[in-house]
Amino acid sequence: MHAVMCREFAGLDKLDYAEVDAPQPKDGEVQIRVEAAGVNYPDGLLVQGLYQVKPPLPFAPGSEVAGTIEALGAGVTSFKIGDRVVTACSGGYAEVVVAEAARCFAMPDGMDAADACAMIVAYGTSHHALKQRANLQAGETLVVYGAAGATGIAAAQIGKIIGARVIAVASTDEKKQIARDAGADAVIGYDNLKDEVKSLTGGKGADVVFDVVGGDAFNAATRFMARNGRLLVIGFASGEIPKFPVNLALVKEYAVIGVFWGNFTHAQPEDYAENMRELFGWYHDGSVKPLIEGRYPLSTAAEVLKRVLGRGAVGKIALIPGS
Q1: Where residue 100 sits, what CATH number does that domain have?
Q2: Is pLDDT at 15 greater than 90 in this prediction?
Q3: Is residue 239 scored above 90 in pLDDT?
Q4: For the Enoyl reductase (ER) domain, which residue ranges apply (predicted)?
């Protein structure tokens, strides 16, 4: 089989599209023929050695795949060969992967493989952030940074399902339109964030901020939070991890809350499974719908990651083996 291999922590050009042995399922695992592998911002950080964790070399990046089960490890009774599933796993940029059966979810009939990938990390992260971490309530104001990205679109759609008022933040006219299409009630840019949010909320500020950007955008949020607000720290797409003046949280009485979806899925597997059931239900009734910007050959992973890290992508991107 072919896979995208990281053999050293280095620039994206060092990724190697190579022929390697297909992994075989161990006890409790399934082997999956990949139909689509989702691309996520952290993938590009991981191969450069810039992420929170560093897997042993060599490895294939990629954390979400959708495809068809081709083989079962010992003890697997929840699936059969031929079932279509989606899962979070390691080594996703490959034609074949193995995954724990317990972390696989059956895809609803007719579900697009790229859509299914978006449900895992992008929608999974946004759902966990707003549900378990922020406890977002109907009638509250939610500010979504990076609103044209896969997680931002998910946050806007889920925020509307919950009944929040959504203020989306995006950097270009094209991205602002994507945010409007996702259901945002108001859309603004990154200039004058504090004044814009204060104006749109009648001076109250934001109840919840969904921050995947960091840097100056985070700094602005620390100054427009409402009392009892929740500032969600999800990522640092700006490339800058900000410093937080804790006196602001004291004076304004709001909370800064970390969101690490990967930890959540392992620490609270039952809640993770329930979240996925809820997301698939929303997908089935049309309440959520990922924006798939493009489907690209697996061999072009390095070029795709460059666009994602450069914040040039919108929505979700999928890599397609054999295309």
Answers
A1: 3.90.180.10
A2: yes
A3: no
A4: 10-319
108: exposed, middle or buried (C-beta count within 10 Å: 0-12, 13-18, 19+)?
Answer: middle
CB atoms within 10 A of CB 251: 9
Q: Residue 12's Cα: distance from chain center in Å? A: 20
Overall average pLDDT of the 148-152 stretch: 95
**% of the chain exceeding 70 in pLDDT:** 100
Dist. CA 300–CA 310, nearest whole Å: 16
Residue indicated by tokens 């490339």: 239
3-state secondary structure at position 26 = coil
**DSSP assignments along 266-318, one per residue:** HH-HHHHHHHHHHHHHHHHHTS----EEEEEEGGGHHHHHHHHHTT---BEEE
User: Phi and psi dihedrals of 177, rounded to 5?
Assistant: -65, -40
Burial 191-207 (b: 16+ CB within 10 A, else e): eebeebbbebbeeebbb
pLDDT digits (tens, 9 = 90+) for 245-282: 999 999 999 999 999 999 999 999 999 999 999 999 99
CA–CA separation, 302 and 313 (whole Å): 14
Bridge-based pairing state of the strands 225-233 and 255-258 = parallel
CB 30 within 8 A of CB 72: yes
Query: Domain span at residue 170?
Result: 123-262
Task: Record the pTM.
Answer: 0.92
CB-based contact 251:223 (threshold 8 Å): no
- Are 258 and 300 in the same domain? no
- Model confidence over 42-60: pLDDT tens digits? 899 999 999 888 999 999 9
Q: Which residues of 220-248 are buried (b: 16+ CB within 10 A; e: fewer)?
A: bbbebbbeebbbbbbbbbbeeebeeeeeb
The mean per-residue pLDDT over the stretch 212-239 comes to: 96
CA 132 to chain centre: 16
Type of residue at 220: A
